[in-house]
């Protein structure tokens, strides 16, 4: 059961919650399902089966498993390096999730309105079907509207700068969240495969709970019908675009 849940944990994760909806929206809604399943059956599933089979056969990691063939030894190291880079990439996203998790304990969510120091004059706020630009009704210089959650993420969470020449100082709150994310990873794997097998009881099933909750929340939001219609009426011209 732990092995089966580990496989599910490798297949279902953050990408299914935030990456797939974005890619589907960008690539024609339901039309994205066709290339997605083509890649899934022709590339994803065979490689997943190959990785699982080699792992069981050699009882080793990717770097050691490919020692059976000197020609593909570099492929094993490339797989290990890729896993390392992906771990760093995903752990940053987990740090963002932890940041929002702690920020959500406030009585009033900071990204629910504008007028804060991180908001600009282009901030749009909807209140009772009325549009306010930075809390001022019908402001004329609101030419490039930005919503408060977007500015909260860019200007407060990330402290995003305009160029690499001015990256600024690290955000202590976000740095602590990243440290906590790595500590959680360390606690999950510190005892080896035995402890990670117990962790998957939570990590493999929790994404389904999140997805189910987001579906309920999504279909109850204003404009949900338009989003569902966009997904069910695909833009078939997007299939021809390979970018």
Query: Alpha-carbon distance between the termini?
Result: 40 Å
Characterize the main sheet. Answer: 3 strands, antiparallel
Give the rounded overall mean pLDDT. Answer: 80
3D shape = globular
Return Rg in Å.
Answer: 22 Å
Number of helices: 10
> What proportion of the residues form beta strands (DSSP E)?
under 5%
Helix content: 55-70%
Number of strands: 3
Runs in which pLDDT lies below 50 for 5 or more consecutive residues are 127-131, 135-141
Question: What order do the SSEs take from the amino end to the carboxyl end, as H and E?
Answer: HHHHHEEEHHHHH
Q: What structural category characterises the helix and strand content?
A: mainly alpha
- How do the strands line up in the largest sheet? 1-2-3
GO cellular component, one term: plasma membrane
Keywords: Glycoprotein, Membrane, Metal-binding, Sodium, Transmembrane, Transmembrane helix, Transport
GO molecular function: amino acid:sodium symporter activity; L-amino acid transmembrane transporter activity; metal ion binding
Protein name: Transporter
């Amino acid at each position: 059961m732990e092995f089966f849940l580990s496989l599910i944990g490798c297949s279902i994760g953050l990408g299914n919650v935030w990456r797939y909806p974005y890619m589907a929206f960008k690539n024609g809604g339901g039309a994205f399902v066709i290339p997605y399943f083509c890649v899934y059956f022709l590339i994803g599933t065979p490689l997943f089966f190959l990785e699982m089979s080699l792992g069981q056969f050699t009882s080793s990691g990717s770097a050691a498993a490919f020692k059976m063939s000197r020609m593909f030894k570099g492929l094993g190291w490339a797989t290990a390096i890729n896993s390392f880079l992906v771990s760093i990439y995903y752990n940053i996203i987990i740090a963002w999730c932890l940041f929002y998790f702690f920020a959500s304990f406030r009585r009033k969510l900071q990204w629910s309105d504008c007028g804060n120091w991180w908001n600009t004059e282009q901030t749009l706020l909807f209140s009772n079907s009325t549009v306010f630009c930075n809390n001022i009704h019908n402001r004329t210089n609101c030419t490039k509207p930005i919503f408060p959650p977007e500015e909260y993420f860019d200007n407060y969470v990330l402290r995003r700068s305009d160029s690499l020449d001015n990256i600024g100082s690290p955000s202590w709150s976000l740095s602590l969240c990243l440290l906590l994310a790595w500590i959680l990873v360390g606690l999950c794997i510190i005892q080896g495969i035995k402890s990670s097998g117990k962790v998957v009881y939570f990590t493999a099933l929790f994404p389904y709970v999140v997805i189910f909750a987001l579906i309920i929340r999504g279909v109850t939001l204003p404009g949900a019908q338009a989003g569902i219609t966009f997904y069910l009426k695909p833009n078939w011209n997007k299939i021809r675009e390979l970018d």
